[in-house]
Fold:
Amino acid sequence: MITKTNKQLLTALLKRKKELLSSDASLGVTEMDTVRGDEMDVAETMSKQEMSLTLRHHSSEELRMVDEALDKLHGGIYGICENCEKNIEKPRLKARPFVRYCITCQEDIESKVDNNTGPVSYKPGSVV
Structure:
């Protein structure tokens, strides 16, 4: 059974998915056919293409996380930290409905990554 809060989060996830899909379509990367002009023109074109690729990568990563959250919601395991298996705080889920970790585990993960203290139990692409 989906609770009222989870219905709201489901709506937020579906809305975000729609936004990501529509923005992804508008982030088309154009081929660098024959760029005419001086070195500055070529550099500017390449910079724009790199920015477009970076934005597309971030968008597709977030879309993947949204899809995972939707799968969890439908599977009845939504809102559970993937590290400690405790419930993720509701305000955190409302702010970022696709998060995978509770705030305590996320801070611990980021601390270990920042300090390069070795392997941690998290999946790539985790977001606060």
